[in-house]
Amino acid sequence: MNLVVIGAQWGDEGKGKIVDYLAGDSDIVVRYSGGANAGHTIVVGEKKIALHLIPSGILYPDKIAVLGSCMVIDPKALFDEIAMLEEHGIHAEGRILISDRAHLVLPHYIKRDKERDAARKRPIGTTGRGIGITFSQKAERDGIRLADLDWPEKLEELPDESRAFVLSYKERLLPMSLSLTAFLAARKGKKVLFEGAQGALLDIDSGTYPYVSSGMSGAAGAAAGGGLGPRSIDKVLGVFKAYSTRVGNGPFPTEFDPAREGPLCSFIRETGNEYGVTTGRARRCGYLDLVALRYACQANSIDSLVMTHLDVYDTLAEIKVCTAYDIKGFPTENFPASIPALESAKPILKTFPGWQQNITNAVSYTALPPQTKDYIKFIEEYCQTKVGIISVGADRGQTFVREPVWS
Ligand code: GDP
Ligand code: IMO
Ligand code: MG
């Protein structure tokens, strides 16, 4: 079975936590898109690990972790991450495989990414990891793939410094290389978990372009990044937070306005620890945006939603959620492509009573307070998608499922 986990908002929804949780029952975990711009945090008891390139299944000693075809990989960042895992007692070498079609991030792409964004009239606020430059080199047909490390004439075209850089990793990278299509075809019937990076609204095609990342972070990217056709995808899970966050620039219709929401913004940021894993930037925070979430469900064929960070609302007397936008006097429930329309959208909010009790120890849906269930039910009805998994804290154990996942 091929099960896909995507972010259903602007990233940082808790994908790493959920993939780690589900990986226990999987055979192979394939990270399918993005690069070291991602930051996926996993908490298991006292252990807290932030992954950028390596799939979240790596914490289990018997799982195979594959970096997929649509990833862009900075070799230095990869081997730094493997060393970090070793320090935590996690032996990753030998269990990490890389699609030979994945592209490599070169040091001068990183420099160019930072310079390019700083020079933009409207900066995107990239993570400065060379992601956009690597994807544009790929689209220009000038990129370097893992497979190209064995193509001396191609490497000759690189500037001396870049050639020396990739060659210095060749002996370590090539043994990890595989043909992902053939690898997965030979393992039909295995439980393969596809881990997304970024989120539906940061997808190059269906996101808030140009304020997006450069890869296919939506569900379609799992097929491309897994070397599969779209009919091979059996199920898509969309992870979302009980509120919304965004890092970097771009429209965010439900963003908290300190003048209007007062201390709510800093409350959510501090309670939810909303600081970027990759760059340390404070994340922008706002109400849950159901217009955007339903759009993400529709654009990605999300079969089931995974709700995280529900616990962050534990002490609030009331909870608001956006059910429509007012765009220049016209109400709409459709998520527009136009950036000026999104920038002028005023959220139309519905208020729910808070549950005002600690739910971080809840182990089942039935254990949740009635107010929490009402809030979840409303989201399900609006999005026409069931919330199948709920997370009430950062730890692996603070998770429960409402319906079987691997079926
Ligand atoms: P990802 O990029 O989607 O994997 O998410 P990040 O790791 O960047 O950010 C999610 C943050 O929230 C991490 O610090 C997680 O440890 C934490 N987290 C995940 N799920 C929950 C949850 O249900 N409640 C709380 N309070 N924190 C969570
Ligand atoms: P995970 O996987 C949140 C954002 C950046 C910037 C834009 C483009 O942890 O959810 P890039 O460096 O990709 O060219 O930056 O995308 N961004 C993310 N925001 N979570 C992420 O990944 C992100 N990856 C990129 O902040 O606005
Ligand atoms: Mg993250």
How would you describe this structure to a colleague?
- With 407 residues, the chain is α/β, with parallel strands linked by helices.
- The protein has a domain at 240-401: Adenylosuccinate Synthetase, subunit A, domain 3 (Adenylosuccinate Synthetase, Chain A, domain 3), CATH 3.90.170.10.
- Helix content is 29%, strand content 23%.
- The protein is built from 13 helices and 19 strands.
- Strands 1, 2, 5, 6, 7, 8, 9, 10, 14, 18 and 19 form an eleven-stranded mixed beta sheet that branches. Strands 13, 15, 16 and 17 form a four-stranded mixed beta sheet that branches.
- Strand 15 and strand 16 (330-332) form a beta hairpin.
- Helix 3 (107-119) packs across helix 4.
- The longest helix has 14 residues, at 160-173.
- It is globular and about 65 Å long.
- The model has no long low-confidence stretch (mean pLDDT 97).
- The chain binds guanosine-5'-diphosphate (GDP), 6-O-phosphoryl inosine monophosphate and magnesium ion.
Keywords for this entry:
407 residues, alpha/beta, Adenylosuccinate Synthetase, Chain A, domain 3, 11-stranded mixed beta sheet, 4-stranded mixed beta sheet, binds guanosine-5'-diphosphate, binds 6-O-phosphoryl inosine monophosphate, binds magnesium ion
Layout of strands and helices, then pairs:
Elements: E1 2-7, H1 15-23, E2 28-34, E3 40-44, E4 47-51, E5 64-73, H2 75-87, E6 96-99, E7 103-104, H3 107-119, H4 131-139, H5 152-156, H6 160-173, E8 177-178, H7 180-185, E9 192-195, H8 220-225, E10 235-241, E11 244-246, H9 258-261, H10 264-271, E12 284-286, E13 288-289, H11 290-300, E14 304-308, E15 318-327, E16 330-332, H12 339-344, E17 346-353, H13 370-383, E18 386-391, E19 399-401
Parallel strand pairs: 1-9, 1-10, 2-5, 2-9, 5-6, 5-7, 6-8, 10-14, 13-15, 14-18
Antiparallel strand pairs: 3-4, 11-12, 15-16, 15-17, 18-19
Helix pairs in contact: 3-4
This protein binds guanosine-5'-diphosphate, 6-O-phosphoryl inosine monophosphate and magnesium ion.
